[in-house]
Amino acid sequence: MSTKASQKRDLIIQTAIQYIQDNDLNSLTLDGVAGKAGISKGGLLYHFKTKDALQAAIAETIMDEIMQSYEKFAHQEYGAGRLTRGFILVSQKDLAQGARLNIAIQIMQNEHSSISEEYERLLDDLMHDGLEESTVHLIRLTIDGLYYSKLLNIAPVSREVEEKVFEQLLQMARKDSVS
């Protein structure tokens, strides 16, 4: 794909993600995304033949961005718990930027595909990160809870409380190294 075509494709995907964040997944339409991206519906259809194809590209893009960010954070950390701290930091960043991972999860759930395998691989890595298993589970379940609270709008916590929770999770991932 040419650079211009890939740039247009990326514009469509990023516009669609923003559209979903501003509205919700159920309101996503090809016409709506085309209008927000400033292109014709035919131009959008050149890149994505169906709404399902666009949604699959959105989910793949978000998952790729999350995993790249996770790897970057984990690479910057050292010692036991470095992968877990990378997971905490990428989750903190994503939640602060609108919880894009929730979009990918919703799309994958709607398509009856599962992020379970990828998430289980990540959890397996975290379980071998030099921390107590119960600490890793406590950290991941807390992060899951923050995402679900935001997704379902069930008593979401303030930004300040969220920051304090992440600080405590990072402390847990530093002090609970297994010798």
Characteristic key phrases:
single chain, 179 residues, mainly alpha, Arc Repressor Mutant, subunit A, 2 domains, 9 helices, 76% helix, elongated
Verbal overview:
The protein has 179 residues and is an all-alpha fold. The protein folds into two domains: 49 residues, Homeodomain-like (Arc Repressor Mutant, subunit A, Orthogonal Bundle); 123 residues. The protein is 76% helix and 0% strand. It contains nine helices and no strands. Helix 1 packs across helix 4. The longest helix is centred in the middle third of the chain and has 26 residues. The chain is elongated. The mean pLDDT is 90.
Mean pLDDT: 90
What's the β-strand tally?
0
Q: How large, in whole angstroms, is the Cα Rg?
A: 18 Å
Total number of distinct structural domains: 2
What general form does the structure show? elongated
Question: What distance lies between the first and last C-alpha atoms, to the nearest angstrom?
Answer: 50 Å
**SS-based class:** mainly alpha
**Order of H and E elements:** HHHHHHHHH
Largest sheet: none
Tally of DSSP helical segments:
9
Percent range for helical residues? over 70%
Brief characterization of the structure:
The protein is mostly helical. The protein is built from nine helices and no strands. It holds the Pfam family TetR_C_28.
